[in-house]
Amino acid sequence: MEIFLTEYAGVCVGVKRAIKMAHKTAEEAHGPIFVLHEIVHNTHVVNDLANRGVHSVDDVAEVSEGTLIISAHGVAPSVIADAKSRQLDVVDTTCPLVSKIHRIVKALADKNYTILLLGEKSHDEVMGVQGHAKDHIHIFHRKEEIPGLPMTDGPVALVSQTTQSIKYFDEILALLVERYPQLEVHNTICDATEKRQTSALAIAGNMDVMITVGSMSSANSRRLQEVAGGLCPASYLVDKATDVQAEWFTGQERVGVTAGASTPDYLIEGVIDRLMEISRERGMEPTVVRSESSEEEFIEVH
Ligand code: SF4
Predict the structure, then answer these.
(1) What is the CATH topology of the domain spanning 97-185?
(2) Would you say residue 278 has pLDDT above 80?
């Protein structure tokens, strides 16, 4: 089999930063250490952190002392205030690109905008963003929800969860401008998401099978699998190497591999090793084509 790794795959700068801050806290902080929800949406990263003594909680109220780490997805200001009122030390690993959305929606709310937020209601990032402009934000995800959004002659703005699909955002935008001619658009899909989707699309059409490495809890990994599936119907999301099923490759030659922004490199390499093993079991010497970018990714906050 020929195995192709996309130009951009795996952990982004925001995730690397959050993990590094959490590890440093695990080494240096005194007393119990907790993280609110999952530091990033990857089960292996979460388990590794638990092995370092940092356990996830679902609510600040579960923590009575010590340190509380805020995940890369960010939270509402009320959550930080609550933690501080409980005398907890707060380590905030919110990705700067998520913090940028917090500032955007806060500024829009101060100017009395109606804010339409394209995202998943139950996602940590979306709930955190909502908390920065509570009464002004209307969250929606499906096109069918658009007729239910409030009509107004006043100012209206569109913002997005960082991990939405670029193509879907454009489709939604085309529908919204008809309903709200005054719409102000803030495309807040992050650069890392865009690069991973674009590089998956660049190869998916020429592949027999596409594999996305990432956890089911990861919105950007699920989206990558969907995006790749648009061009390559045999598109699978796997959390780890042992999830890869040999029968997916029967009669198939070209396999593309991509990975969500929260997937550590060792999991990607594990999946590539598994694909090579499957190829050899079928009597074919595998080749691996890596088009990884040598360009250093960085967070650019305008
Ligand atoms: S996917 Fe984007 S917004 Fe999320 S942590 Fe990475 S860089 Fe930040």
Answers:
(1) Cobalt-precorrin-4 Transmethylase; domain 1 (3.40.1010)
(2) yes
Does residue 209 contact residue 256 with C-beta atoms inside 8 Å? yes
CA of 277 to the centre of ligand 1 (A): 32
The arithmetic mean of pLDDT across residues 28-52, rounded, is 96
% of the chain at pLDDT higher than 70: 96
User: What distance in angstroms lies between residue 21's CA and the mean position of ligand 1's atoms?
Assistant: 15
Whole-prediction pTM: 0.92
How far is the C-alpha of 255 from the C-alpha of 118, rounded, in Å? 32
CA 219/CA 201 separation, integer angstroms: 17
pLDDT value at residue 291? 81
The count of other CB atoms within 10 Å of the CB of residue 253 is 12
Whether 144 is catalytic is: no
CATH number for the region 2-11+191-290 comes to 3.40.1010.20
CATH fold of 13-95 reads Rossmann fold (3.40.50)
CATH 3.40.50.11270 domain range(s) in the chain: 13-95
Chain region(s) in the chain for CATH 3.40.1010.20:
2-11+191-290, 97-185
Between CA 159 and CA 276 the distance in angstroms is 42
pLDDT at residue 239, as a whole number: 97
Q: Of 7, 38, 125, 194, which one is the catalytic site residue?
A: 125
ipTM above 0.90 for this complex: yes
